[in-house]
Specification:
This protein has 466 residues and is α+β, with helices and mostly antiparallel strands. It has three domains: 166 residues, no CATH class; 77 residues, no CATH class; 110 residues, no CATH class. It has nine helices and 22 strands. Helix 2 packs antiparallel against helix 9 and helix 6 runs antiparallel to helix 8. It starts with a strand and ends with a helix. The N terminus is likely disordered.
Length: 466
């Protein structure tokens, strides 16, 4: 019998009785030991690279947070409040403390008109013209006189008007009737429009028919701007309008959105948001703790005991003994706890623990911010500058120490993969050689057996003759 492995032929011992395939497999198991060791080393290397990439990403996150916290105005985070539920305000990065009072005169609305009830737009493909608030005329010609084709033509025209067909009962003979509702795609007075049966020239000549002035038709909602009046009731009163319900930068860096008119003045106040300011500082601490936590987990030595044999095995974390990550983490924790201008980071609530992690005391921070906002800002900026420099030195995408280590280990993994592939070719050739040798052995044994049988027959023949 014979079996095939790869492209080589293996013949079990027909003459010798040897299990040739089993013998070759046993020999190949020994031959494969170096490649197996390389595969195990590649697995360990890839695991090491993955852990390096993870901690590098955490350090990059810290570098980003540190860069933001180091800014001289990182604690100048403002929030806005409104005295009315019908008015909301949001702040941007350029907001500053202040307040403003105003009355809401109107909210913005989109222009809406409906035609009279009809079963078709026209008996044939009749053009219609849409005239905007700026007087611009756009003529649209439907594919036919049907309402559906008229709706499609308006919607495809791209003139800031959308159309839809609305059921409107039936006429005397039972024919279904519909109205066309035409709506501006944006709010504001600039979105107002009129619709005429006829071409732009006919509109100019005054011979086209305004469909909203026909019997049963109407402008349902007049397009209008939202408006607020600042300092209402005083000689300084000023009305500000917006095509939408949001007034951009009503105060520097503050957007105000209105939802209903008001009769009483509304006050919007912008002040420092101490909760957001605290998040800047605590976020820096959280980012560093994420690094120390991951490093601690991946340098820990764990022990497991077999329930069957009772033997205990220990396993070290993948980053155990790695000098690059150890030095980076030590440098980060040192810079986070280093005094700034002679003052400890604990003065603003950043406290180092015995295990190298940090805690953040919000009460201490809020007290420091309230009593000495400039000093608190200077302390946080100093801490963040130091930490950011250390984090960048470790994680810079070109020169970072961890980044460089990752590149080196990836090169090692690539070299191991090449060696493993070379071993695969070598082992394939070795198996083919062994199969050829055992096949030749069986052939030789077969020839010897044949010769032995011939000699035996000749000897037997000689004995009979005598």
């Amino acid at each position: 019998m014979s079996s095939v492995s790869g492209n080589s032929l293996a013949i079990d011992g027909l003459v010798s009785g040897l299990k040739t395939t089993d013998l070759i497999n046993s020999l190949m198991t020994v031959e494969q030991v170096p490649q197996t060791l390389l595969k195990n080393k590649l697995t360990d290397t890839n695991s090491f690279v993955s852990s390096l990439q993870t901690i590098n990403s955490l350090v990059q996150t810290l570098a980003t947070k540190a860069g933001d916290a180091a800014k001289a105005s990182s604690l100048d985070v403002f929030g806005a409040t409104s005295s009315s539920t019908g008015v909301t305000a949001t702040t941007g990065t350029t907001a500053s403390a202040g307040s403003v009072a105003f009355q809401v005169g109107s909210t913005a609305a989109a222009h809406v008109g409906v035609t009279a009830a009809m079963s078709t737009w026209s008996s044939a493909a009749e053009p219609l013209t849409i005239v905007g608030a700026d007087g611009k005329k756009t003529t649209v010609t439907p594919a036919s006189g049907s309402l559906d084709d008229t709706v499609a033509a308006i919607n495809k025209a791209g003139v800031g008007v959308s159309a839809t067909r609305v059921s409107s009962g039936t006429d005397a003979d039972g024919t279904k009737l519909y109205r066309l509702q035409l709506t501006a795609t944006t709010t504001g007075a600039a979105g107002a429009f009129s619709v005429y049966r006829g071409t732009a020239d006919e509109v100019t000549a005054g011979t086209a028919t305004n469909v909203f002035t026909q019997q049963g038709a109407a402008v349902v909602t007049q397009g209008r701007d939202a408006s607020v009046t600042l300092w209402a009731g005083t000689a300084a009163a000023q009305t500000v309008t917006s095509a939408t319900n949001t007034f951009r930068d009503l105060l520097p860096g503050v957007d105000v959105t209105v939802t209903q008119p008001t009769t009483d003045p509304v006050t919007v106040t912008v002040a420092r948001d101490t909760t957001k300011a605290q998040a800047v500082a605590s976020g820096l601490v959280d980012a560093l703790n994420a690094i120390t936590s991951y490093y601690g987990t991946n340098t820990a030595v764990t022990s497991t005991t077999s329930p069957t044999t009772g033997t205990t095995a220990t396993k070290a974390g993948v980053l155990t003994g790695d000098a690059t990550t150890r030095d980076a983490v030590q440098r980060l924790t040192t810079t986070m706890s280093t005094p700034v201008n002679g003052k400890s980071p604990s003065s603003i609530g950043v406290v180092i623990q015995k295990d190298g992690s940090f805690t953040f005391d919000p009460d201490v921070f809020q007290k420091a911010l309230a009593t000495d906002p400039q000093g608190t800002q200077a302390m946080l900026s100093g801490i963040a500058t130091n930490v950011g420099a250390a984090a960048t030195a470790a994680s810079d995408k070109y020169t970072g120490s961890i980044t460089t280590s990752i590149a080196g280990q990836q090169s090692v993994a690539k070299d191991l993969s090449t060696q493993i592939d070379n071993w695969t070719d070598r082992l394939t050739a070795r198996r083919a050689t062994l199969q050829a040798q055992y096949s030749a052995l069986e052939t030789s044994l077969s020839k010897l057996q044949s010769q032995s049988a011939w000699l035996s027959s000749q000897l037997a023949s000689t004995s009979t003759s005598k």
